[in-house]
Write a structure and sequence with these properties.
Layout (H helix, E strand, L loop, with lengths): L33 H13 L5 E6 L9 H14 L5 E8 L6 H9 L3 E5 L4 H7 L9 H13 L4 E7 L7 H11 L4 E6 L21 H18 L5 E2 H10 L18 E2 L4 E3 L10 E4 L5 H5 L2 H12 L3 H4 L4 H4 L9 E2 L5 E3 L3 H10 L1 H12 L6 H19 L20 H6 L1 H4 L1
Parallel strand pairs: 1-2, 2-3, 3-4, 4-5, 5-6
Antiparallel strand pairs: 7-8, 8-9, 10-11
Bound molecules: iron/sulfur cluster (SF4) (2 copies).
The site of one iron/sulfur cluster (SF4) has 10 residues, from loops.
């Protein structure tokens, strides 16, 4: 991940963790210079042994760099590209600066744009505001319209926080139906605020709670798995499915170790991770030490391995560890009931969500193993639900409930029907 303007941004989203990082560079003008761009491009491409090399541009707001910078970046990529290697670019933006010129450029060079949008107007504007405190929803939607108009590939990044966590279906349906998103990422906001946070967790009131996050994902999953599999791609669900398939996840949060999500600052400083842009996680500067040396240095290997090594016993014996992996170390703020540190603040939600999706994940994994599309799950679930309805329709009041709860039908799913006929039965 490359931050050509560091953490600089034209907005002031309330939960942003990038802006405070600008204090690390008090005298900087926060613009990557051409010499460093050239050095980085050369080293980054040379360091890879894969047929596709992806550049991920991030901010702050990376469009503040101006289009000439990215034109130069693309030209350098062409210059250093070995034969047979494909180069791709992804760029994460708040969308407020997107216009027809940017979109023409992105379309021409096949950039994949990540657009930050937190849902419908009210919940988006709760925290995503500009420097003057003004809402940004209209400007983001104009940017989105420009992406659509010019046929630019995009995905939507939605943070999940106190203002939208209670509205999972409203948020999901808005992104799917009104924003026209086919690729969606949900990122939980867990914001440490030592001064004003919760006295036990130190987490701000803007943060999503573990329970809320679990309910949010589960509600969206239930809609997605019954109608949208194969049409809409939700990163959390795709990664979970990879875990059920026993495959490597494509995201660090769901991996057993960290270490491959390094971030390059505007001045060439390389850090262990985007969430750990702090002096003690600075690996060095690529103008002084080759990138490939920094990437493989013992400090970075230790950082990566620490994710697994510091798991508390509660995680090690957890039935959903294979999918959860203890979550991101930055969110491991709690103690287990046994008093061990290192439990993820979102644990309750992870546990609930991964348990909730187990049956459907098994179905999708079975379809994929049989060479069938995962979207067959839509039909399987519909068939199952019809069969269940039929079992309920046939069930007698005093029989065990067909749902398998172990209770009598009249005390479970047959409660309504039972009460309708209670007098007659008595
Ligand atoms: S600390 Fe979190 S964000 Fe960073 S690499 Fe590890 S899992 Fe990924
Ligand atoms: S659900 Fe909780 S206990 Fe289980 S692995 Fe995740 S964080 Fe650990």
């Amino acid at each position: 991940m490359v931050k050509p303007v560091g953490g600089e941004c034209n907005l002031r989203c309330a939960y942003c963790y990038y802006l405070p990082k600008t204090r690390l560079y008090p005298h900087s003008h926060f613009r990557m210079d051409e010499a460093l761009l050239e050095e980085f491009t050369r080293q980054y491409i040379a360091a890879q042994r894969v047929p596709e090399v992806n550049f991920a541009w991030q901010g702050g707001e990376p469009l503040l760099m101006g289009s000439a910078f990215y034109e130069r970046a693309v030209a350098l990529q062409r210059r250093f590209r070995p034969t047979g290697v494909r180069i791709t670019n992804a760029l994460q933006t708040n969308g407020t600066l997107l216009d027809a010129d940017w979109c023409r450029f992105f379309r021409q060079h096949d950039f994949l744009i990540g657009l930050s949008l937190d849902g419908p107007r009210e919940v988006h504007d709760a925290y995503r505001r500009d420097r003057a405190g003004r809402p940004t929803f209209n400007r983001v939607m104009e940017g989105l319209a420009a992406l659509h108009e010019h046929g630019v590939a995009f995905n939507i990044l939605t943070t999940v926080h106190a203002a939208n966590a209670h509205y999972p279906l409203e948020v999901y349906r808005f992104l799917r139906d009104e924003a026209g998103a086919r690729f969606i990422q949900f990122i939980p906001i867990v914001e440490r605020n030592a001064a004003h946070g919760c006295p036990t967790t130190g987490v701000s009131e803007r943060s999503v709670s573990g329970a809320q996050y679990g309910r949010f994902l589960s509600a969206i999953f239930d809609e997605w798995v019954r109608r949208d599999v194969g049409q809409v791609f939700v990163q959390t669900f795709d990664i979970a499915l990879a875990a059920w398939m026993g495959e490597r996840p494509g995201l660090c949060v769901a991996s057993p170790t960290c270490g491959t999500a390094m971030v390059l600052e505007h001045n060439g400083d390389l850090y262990a991770c985007d969430h750990f842009v702090e002096p003690r996680y600075r690996l060095g500067n690529i103008a002084q030490t080759p990138l490939v040396e920094l990437v493989g240095c013992p400090q970075q290997r230790a950082f990566g391995e620490a994710k697994r090594a510091t798991l508390p016993q509660m995680c090690r014996s957890c039935p959903v560890l294979f999918a959860c992996q203890g979550g991101c170390p930055k969110d491991r703020l709690l103690q287990t009931p046994q008093g061990e540190p290192g439990l993820n603040y979102l644990c309750e939600g992870y546990r609930a969500f991964f348990s909730h999706v187990d049956a459907a994940m098994r179905m999708m994994a079975a379809e994929l193993r049989a060479g069938q599309p995962a979207s067959n799950v839509i039909l399987r679930l519909a068939e199952e639900e019809v069969a269940q309805q039929e079992r309920w329709a046939r069930a007698e009041r005093n029989e065990p409930c067909p749902c398998g709860s172990g209770r009598k039908f009249k005390h479970c799913h047959g409660r309504t029907r039972g009460s309708e006929h209670a007098d007659a039965a008595l």
